[in-house]
Every structure is written in C-alpha cells, then in structure tokens.
Amino acid sequence: MEKAIVVKNLRKVYEGEVVAVDDVSFEVERGEIFGFLGPNGAGKTTTINILTTLVPPTSGEAYVGDHKVGEEDEEIRRIIGLVPQELTADDELTGWENIYLQGSLYGMSRSEIRSEARELLQMVGLEEAADRLVRTYSGGMRRRLELVMGLIHKPEILFLDEPTLGLDVQTRAHLWDHIRRVRSEYDMTIFMTTHYMDEADKLCDRIAIIDHGRIKAIGTPDELKRMVEGDLVIVRTVDGPPIDVRLDGVPGLKDYTIDGTEIRIRVEEGERATPAIIESLVSRGYQIRSVELVRPSLEQVFLTLTGRSIREEEALDTISYRVMMRRRRG
Ligand SMILES: Nc1ncnc2c1ncn2[C@@H]1O[C@H](COP(=O)(O)OP(=O)(O)O)[C@@H](O)[C@H]1O
Ligand SMILES: [Mg+2]
Hints:
The structure is a single chain. This protein folds into two domains: 3-225, P-loop containing nucleotide triphosphate hydrolases (Rossmann fold), CATH 3.40.50.300; 230-294, Alpha-Beta Plaits (2-Layer Sandwich). It has helices at 44-51, 73-79, 95-105, 110-123, 139-151, 169-186, 197-203, 221-228, 270-283, 298-306, 311-329, and strands at 3-14, 18-29, 33-37, 59-64, 67-68, 80-83, 157-161, 189-194, 206-211, 214-219, 231-237, 253-259, 262-267, 288-294. By secondary structure, the protein is α/β, with parallel strands linked by helices. The chain is built from eleven helices and 14 strands. The longest helix is centred in the last third of the chain and has 19 residues, at 311-329. 38% of the residues are buried. It is 39% helix and 28% strand. The radius of gyration is 24 Å and the shape is elongated. The strands form three sheets. The protein has a six-stranded mixed β-sheet with strand order 6-7-8-3-9-10, sandwiched between helices. A four-stranded antiparallel β-sheet has the order 2-1-4-5, with helices on one face. A four-stranded antiparallel β-sheet has the order 12-13-11-14, with helices on one face. It binds adenosine-5'-diphosphate (ADP) and magnesium ion (MG). Magnesium ion (MG) binds at residues 44-45, 85, 161-162.
C-alpha cells in the first residue's frame, strides 16, 4: 500500500441541495497525521463519514488503505478506527465496560480486549479510572476513553473528528501528547479534523484548509504560513539607528522597516535570508544584539484564504458541546 488515503473529486450533496463537500481531492501518506482545518459547517465531519463508509458520496472516488469506498466497505471498516465528534461512551457504564462493548463489535474475545486495553489505558493515563462509571469522568477523561475505544482493534488508520472539542487549553495539549504517542508506538496513519488553529499547527504533519466544502490550500504548517506573507526577521543592533542598511543582496527580500535599533525584514524564507542579513549588517560595522525569526500564524493564513476569521465559530461550538454534555448527564 502506497498512500493511506486517496481522494479524488469527492462531492457530497445532502437532500435539500446542501453542498457539504465540493470537489475535494487530497492524499494522505502512511504514518502521517493529516488534518482538515476549517470552521463549523465546512464539511469536515461529512468527509470523515464518507471515508469511514458511514455516508455514501454523491460523486468522486475515495480509497482508504487501497480499498475503494462504496465497493470494499467491509475491508475498510476492518482496518480503520473512528473517534467521532459526538461522544459515544455510555455514561452509565464503566470505562472497561465501554471498551468491552466496543471490542466485541470487532469480534475480539474478552481476554484479547483486556490485554490490548491495558496497554492503551496506560498510554493515556486512564488505568486507575477504568473501573469507574463514565459519568464521573471529566471532559478530558472522556476524550481519552474514546481514543482507547477507537484503538482497541489496532486499526491501521485512525479517524479523529475534533478530538479536543470543548476542552480547556491544558487538557487539549495533554491529549495532543497522547495522540502523538499513539501514532509513533503503533506506526499509525491519523486523519483528523479540527477548527483549532493551534491544534492543527502543533499536531498535524500536513493540513488541508477547508471552507464551504472546498479545500483552499494543502501543506505543512510551515508551508501554509509561508504562502501568505513570508517570514519576518527582526534584528536588533547594539547601536542605532542603522540608517544606511543595504539589504539588496538578501535572497527573497520583500521589504523592511527600521524603528530605532530594530530592523524588521520581510523575506520569503527566514532560514535562507538570515545569514545574508547578518553579514550585510556586520560588514557595515553594526554589532548585533539579537536575531529573531517570526513566522506568520495559521490564523493569518486562514483569514487571507477565506476572508474571515475562524474564531467566532469556535465559541459557538464550545457552548453547544457544553449543553450536549449536560443533557447526557441528565
Ligand atoms: N445529514 C445532513 N443532512 C443535511 N445537511 C447536512 C447533514 N449533515 C451535515 N449537513 C450540512 O453539511 C454542511 C457540512 O457539515 P459538516 O460536514 O458537519 O461540517 P463540519 O464538520 O465541518 O462542521 C453543513 O452545512 C451542514 O449543515
Ligand atoms: Mg464536524
């Protein structure tokens, strides 16, 4: 198997003419964490539902682990794990009981489930809590349990739909560590969705930015950031003002501004430009106090590509999640 996932011109039109996924194409390498980053309603869950065989596409083709969606769904279901956006664990059961239920769906024996789950529970720090009822769990513990449930049958490809939705910043960062560990220990491919910029940035090897069902850009976090504005190199000199700086020879130079002893230089690629910048300043007798390389944020990238910020939607999502949790707890 070469690619873990191949998607060609995928489209999904729901009844009522809602175009949820609009001519989407992308490929996911084996062992990669690939993320769909986009706001509410962008088509992220619909794409996951198609790839996990839950919802048929309207047109286009998709292959998961070399198996064609719509033709080899059984084979696909055997090699994938899914942690859906909506939590699935039963509140009135313990962690273990939920895990047994999930494992038995894959035809695993109780002892098989037990030995697999032990390792997973340990990996996500949930061994102690596994005998407790899920309704006593915190939001972060629930998400970790869902992760264990999605991994119990050792899938080759794991789908995570908004894995840290509604969690606080610290808990989310912990979950990222768990997800990274799962990927490296099991040599797994992960396809995930998120509307959190920092999550996509820190966790994903490559990101597709999706909005209104369309992919706006695909690349590594660094590549995406570079697409927009280039890097900023900030040099502070000991004595200023460095009025006669000449930066003509700097590769990929866009523009620069001088403010006191600080020069802010926009370049295509910081690593390539920095040596020339330093050399040019030093040769003119300036003593350099510090050099800083600032990359533009994904937030800026999203804004440039879509014309709006992702932030407002984030707040909405968190609220609806809280309401949902409260209802579940009854
Ligand atoms: N079962 C459905 N029937 C009709 N429209 C749907 C259905 N599921 C999702 N949609 C619509 O499709 C679009 C994409 O939704 P979704 O894939 O859930 O986006 P995301 O996961 O990025 O928030 C939205 O406009 C949503 O309202
Ligand atoms: Mg969704």
